[in-house]
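re: the backbone from monday

yeah here it is again, tokenized this time
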């Protein structure tokens, strides 16, 4: 392939456009945080690292996720704790994934690599998590990089430099594990690739080096945990504790422990639930576009992956199966929780598989009957499941596929078809941004910054547990600062001195999320929610969704309060 000057390379302008869109997405459609795992897990421990408490560990399994926490802590140390800084790690990870897709597809036409990148970036939840305090896009990058290293060694280096690529693969995998233990769900994929290579009598040296490097790094990791905690298996014990509801509200994944669930729940999880989730969340777009490529291989070529396209197709199929059925616990059946963000690692793989075949279909209508069949089937499933707005997306894709199958082969028709697919994928992202603008997180953040962040007077802010977490994060987790946030469950333990200002922060948007009994709240807090104007309640800020009140008679808070 002839070298193209950088200023004429469509990949450069695609990359710059993605950077620009990340800024637009973050500043024009920022949804905020969940209020549990993100800020009280990664944000809190990131701040610990920023404060110099490196490798800070406790019984919370989130504290062991150093891969993401360390990067977050680095940026907190450099720039402080705020939403813009919190977005840096995930945004950089997305951009690195884009560059890696370009590298993997460098032997394809530049348009094919751009199509692959757009399939990845325009995945609804990939873009949603591009500025969130969550490590799932980081796991996606790490797993994709691991498979890319195997691809490079096998197909580009033709088996040369085995130790180098084995070492790099081991480093990527240990970083992925330190980011989130869900990468263990893909162990069967790597193991099956090894078995196939052994049966094909190839690349022995690479897999021997990889095994030795992984074992060595794993032992070093366990030794490091032993030095820090006195127990080399401390992380495993922390994860086991997470199977119970003993980490506080929002910090457990007992609901993913299918050993304690009824049989029908388990059956639903391993049969249709993830298909349903993929359709409802839009991840099915990348998967459905990849299916024609999977079906294009003869079984023998597919299972032996003698070509790059067969390799990536096999990796995608094995990753889908492994992530659906594999467990992370030897004591209980614990697959990835049925939350689509845990499956984001499938998207870049699907993009690499889908792009060449989608481009050929756009140009020459290749495999048109397979594209028609799959698009009609996905549309029918979406219609049957009543997936809401995504029905329109699948309708648009089906219509575009059928229309392209009927029209003649013209370059401008191919371009319009691909542009239409991109618009269909973009629509849910734009809709999500519009929804975010109706959300009250940004308004609440402004209230906390304006009225509470710089207060020198000792102050207590009473609110819901999510609001409390937001407040602690926005005030940079200053545990001994003058302003402290407490949720309603702490009312019975609080003492109010005359020197302490007491506030109530109200946000109607998040009121439904915590499990507290509104009827059991003290009357003065109910008055705040109902916007009543008693003399003892001073209005500091008040709109339809967010309000901040000062209580001049805080002893009224000593009324009854009981959790549900």
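seq for it, each position gets an aa:
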């Amino acid at each position: 392939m002839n070298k193209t000057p950088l200023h004429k390379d469509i990949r450069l302008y695609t990359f710059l456009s993605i950077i620009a869109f990340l800024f637009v997405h973050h500043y024009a459609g920022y949804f905020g945080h969940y209020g549990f795992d993100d800020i009280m897990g990664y944000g809190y421990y990131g701040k610990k690292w920023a404060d110099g408490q490196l490798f800070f560990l406790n019984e919370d399994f989130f504290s062991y996720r150093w891969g993401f926490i360390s990067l977050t802590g680095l940026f907190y140390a450099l720039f402080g704790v705020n939403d813009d800084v919190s977005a840096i790690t995930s945004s950089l990870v997305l951009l690195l994934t884009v560059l890696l897709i370009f590298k993997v597809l460098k032997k394809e036409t530049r348009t094919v690599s751009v199509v692959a990148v757009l399939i990845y970036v325009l995945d609804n939840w990939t873009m949603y998590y591009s500025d969130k305090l969550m490590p799932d896009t980081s796991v996606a990058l790490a797993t994709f990089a691991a498979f890319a290293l195997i691809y490079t060694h096998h197909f580009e280096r033709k088996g040369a430099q085995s130790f180098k690529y084995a070492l790099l693969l081991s480093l990527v995998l240990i970083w992925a594990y330190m980011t989130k233990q869900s990468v263990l769900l893909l162990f069967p994929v790597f193991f099956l690739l090894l078995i196939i290579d052994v049966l094909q009598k190839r690349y022995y040296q690479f897999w021997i080096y990889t095994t030795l490097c992984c074992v060595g790094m794993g032992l070093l990791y366990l030794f490091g945990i032993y030095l820090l905690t006195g127990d080399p298996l401390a992380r495993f014990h922390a994860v086991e504790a997470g199977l119970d509801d003993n980490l506080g509200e929002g910090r457990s994944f007992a609901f993913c422990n299918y050993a304690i669930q009824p049989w029908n729940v388990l059956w639903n999880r391993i049969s249709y639930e993830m298909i349903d989730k993929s359709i409802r969340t839009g991840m099915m777009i990348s998967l459905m576009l990849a299916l024609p490529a999977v079906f294009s291989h003869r079984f023998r070529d597919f299972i032996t992956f003698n070509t790059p396209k067969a390799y990536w197709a096999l990796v995608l199929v094995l990753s889908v199966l492994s992530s659906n059925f594999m467990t992370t616990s030897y004591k209980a059946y614990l697959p990835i929780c049925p939350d689509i963000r845990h499956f984001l690692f499938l998207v870049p793989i699907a993009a690499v598989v889908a792009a060449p075949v989608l481009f050929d279909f756009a140009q020459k209508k290749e495999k048109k009957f397979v594209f028609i069949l799959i698009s009609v089937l996905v549309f029918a499933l979406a219609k049957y499941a009543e997936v809401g707005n995504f029905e329109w997306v699948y309708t648009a894709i089906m219509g575009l596929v059928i229309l392209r199958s009927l029209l003649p082969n013209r370059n401008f028709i191919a371009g319009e078809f691909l542009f239409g697919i991109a618009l269909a994928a973009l629509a849910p992202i734009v809709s999500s941004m519009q929804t975010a603008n109706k959300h009250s997180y940004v308004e609440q953040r402004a209230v906390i910054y304006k009225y509470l962040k710089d207060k020198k007077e000792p102050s207590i802010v009473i609110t819901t547990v999510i609001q409390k977490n937001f407040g602690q994060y926005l005030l940079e987790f200053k545990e001994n600062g003058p302003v402290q946030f407490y949720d309603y469950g702490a009312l019975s333990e609080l003492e109010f001195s005359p020197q302490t200002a007491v506030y109530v922060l109200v946000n109607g948007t998040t009121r439904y999320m915590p499990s507290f009994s509104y009827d059991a709240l003290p009357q003065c807090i109910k008055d705040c929610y109902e916007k009543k104007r008693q003399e003892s309640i001073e209005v500091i800020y008040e709109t339809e969704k967010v309000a901040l009140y000062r209580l001049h008679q805080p002893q009224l808070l000593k009324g009854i309060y009981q959790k549900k």
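The two ends are 66 Å apart (CA to CA). Residues 441-558 form one domain.
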